[in-house]
Amino acid sequence: MAELFKANTIYDYNEWAGVETRHPLVGFIDFSTVKPLRHTRKYYGFYAVFLKDTKCGELRYGRQFYDYQDGTLIFVAPGQTFGAEDDGTLFQPTGYLLMFHPDLLHNTPLGGLMKNYTYFSYETNEALHLSTEERQIVMDCFHKIQYELSHAIDQHSKALIVDSIKMFLDYCTRFYDRQFATRDNVNKDILVRFERLLDDYYSTGKAERLGLPTVQYCADALHLSYNYFSDLIRKETGVTALGHIHNKVIDLAKMQLVATDKTISEIAYCLGFQYSQHFARLFKREVDCTPNEYRAQMGAY
């Protein structure tokens, strides 16, 4: 495997692409104006958003491959790796790239909001696919940023650029909501597989061996990133993925409390809890009574 190119700064990436750096913390590239390049996998020290217009190779994002389609937005966060392996040939890149460094966001409202844009931690096969109208809105946001970068930096530049980036990210949140909503069949299939996964986890005794199922375990088993899986489940059902796991645990606990003579500690162990008090605390929070109180109440009927 070829050596990883470290693009720690906007300048590093611009140097690789052969374009001028107009701002140390923000960059925008129209790849149609760039000379042919060699593929390379890169480590990013900044946020990067690619608008891919045409297919130009098989990209690797972390350890995953993604054969992207036309009109796709791909989001990369600082600390992530992204790119295609160098096959020794030159290619003409197309599409657009917005780059902004975390330092740009210091002392701005957007800096505290970046954690809300969870799609920066989606895998590339969970990328945002744009309609023609959505693509135009994205390009309008890009043009505002490009306009600011084409002028000398003044006291208004940072606020205007950051505001434009926030508007762009907010639109992307809306577009992802639309993508979740329009992929109804796919989402329902994931929900069914999620339920089956939890059923299998408990029916095969994995809880006793591995402990409580985690959201990360379920996302990995369903071949989805943590954030995409979490967002999909919450937007489809109104309940978080962790909430679904807890609901499953509570349902199984109720069954065992009523149908068996197991002690609270034994039930807790079967459900994957290391300590029975943790089980009792969750049960109390979700059911509004202790496991023993629930068992007594149900025994009275």
From TrEMBL:
<keyword id="KW-0804">Transcription</keyword>
<dbReference type="GO" id="GO:0043565">
    <property type="term" value="F:sequence-specific DNA binding"/>
</dbReference>
<keyword id="KW-0238">DNA-binding</keyword>
<dbReference type="InterPro" id="IPR020449">
    <property type="entry name" value="Tscrpt_reg_AraC-type_HTH"/>
</dbReference>
<dbReference type="InterPro" id="IPR009057">
    <property type="entry name" value="Homeodomain-like_sf"/>
</dbReference>
<protein>
    <submittedName>
        <fullName>AraC family transcriptional regulator</fullName>
    </submittedName>
</protein>
<dbReference type="Pfam" id="PF12833">
    <property type="entry name" value="HTH_18"/>
</dbReference>
<dbReference type="GO" id="GO:0003700">
    <property type="term" value="F:DNA-binding transcription factor activity"/>
</dbReference>
<dbReference type="InterPro" id="IPR018060">
    <property type="entry name" value="HTH_AraC"/>
</dbReference>
<feature type="domain" description="HTH araC/xylS-type">
    <location>
        <begin position="192"/>
        <end position="297"/>
    </location>
</feature>
<keyword id="KW-0805">Transcription regulation</keyword>
